[in-house]
Amino acid sequence: MIRDTGPGSRLWRMAVWAVTLLFCLNLLAMIAAVVLNSFATRWLGTWLPLGFTTRWYASAWDEFQLGDVLVVTLQVVFLVVLVSGLLGVTAAYALARRDFPGKRLVMLAFLLPLLVPPITYGIPLATVLYRAGLAGTLWGVVLANLVPSVPFVVLVMIPFIEQIDPRIEAAARVFGAGTRQLFLRVLLPLLLPGILAALLLVLVRTIAMFELTFLVAGPTSQTLVVALYYAVFAAGVRAGQSIDAMAVVYMAVTLVWLVVALRFVNPTQIVARAKQPSAH
Questions:
Q1: Domain locations in the chain as residue ranges
Q2: 82, 103, 85: which is closest to 94 by C-alpha?
Q3: Phi and psi of 10, rounded to 5°?
Q4: 52 pairs with which residues across the strands?
Q5: At residue 189, does pLDDT exceed 90?
Q6: CATH placement of domain 57-274
Q7: What is the DSSP letter of 52?
Q8: Per-residue pLDDT band at 2 (split at 50, 70, 90)
Q9: CA-to-CA distance for 141 and 127, rounded, in angstroms?
Q10: CA-to-CA distance for 123 and 127, rounded, in angstroms?
Q11: How many CA atoms lie within 13 A of 25 on its CB side?
Q12: Residue 164 phi/psi, 5° resolution?
């Protein structure tokens, strides 16, 4: 492969690097401003705060009931990841291994929640959950988040399942493996990288999901991102440092989840496995 080293190519690469650097610096500057302000005693018209304190974190913890909010967030994330994994992997296996009338329509139905903005179907969904008495509860928030999460797992897992030669499953059944043994001893080890990668992305998506959670959450079922929104826009006067402290907690929680998850799975496995030819 011959690499273009002409002036136009060099200018293009320099422009790309300049835009990338500008984006990174802008992002880092915004994060740094929020973090610094969360520790600032007073910060007006100067490059750095006049002093630093940690009292805003204690204030945010008490004022916004962050302890309860974090517990709810962990519960919602755990339940969404668990249920979407069980339903999504099962549905993906059925779609990957079976042909039936209307299969294309089913695939389209799975695609719609991912292609359509959440607010578009979030309002009718919230209306249904309110009529069913589930809105405002923990399970209402979980059900709302499952609508885009299950299709996401299905679409991620189908390529992984299609790469497994059906003859491997047939051979396992010939040697007496039942459905449970077939899944636990044959399919699960082969699908584990894909399952972990899909659930990692569902985890991050659920933590950051605002629209659907906002529409169905109640006072005792708010996740951290919704509580942060209310802290910013609800009536009343609040110290900007307390709100920034809450934002830092939100960023820290997301980062911790990501670091823990990335110790077990690399998201690029989705692309790597998709490029591998299926065994014959």
A1: 7-52, 57-274
A2: 103
A3: -65, -40
A4: 40
A5: no
A6: 1.10.3720.10
A7: B
A8: low
A9: 13
A10: 6
A11: 6
A12: -85, 125
**In contact, 188 and 101? CB cutoff 8 Å:** no
Q: Token pair of 156, please?
A: 């991620």
**pTM for the full model?**
0.81
Q: How far apart are CA 279 and CA 265, in angstroms?
A: 23
Q: Considering just the CA atoms, what is the radius of gyration of the chain in Å?
A: 24
Distance CA 133, CA 131 (A): 5
The end-to-end CA distance of the chain, in Å, is 32
| CA–centroid distance for 247 within its chain | 17
Q: Mind giving me the DSSP string for 69-102?
A: HHHHHHHHHHHHHHHHHHHHHHHHHHHHH---TT
Asked if 46 and 193 touch (Cβ cutoff 8 Å), the reply is no
Give the tokens for residue 2.
């011959």
- Asked whether 113 and 122 are in contact (CB, 8 A), the reply is no
- Specify the DSSP element, H or E, that contains 16: helix 7-39
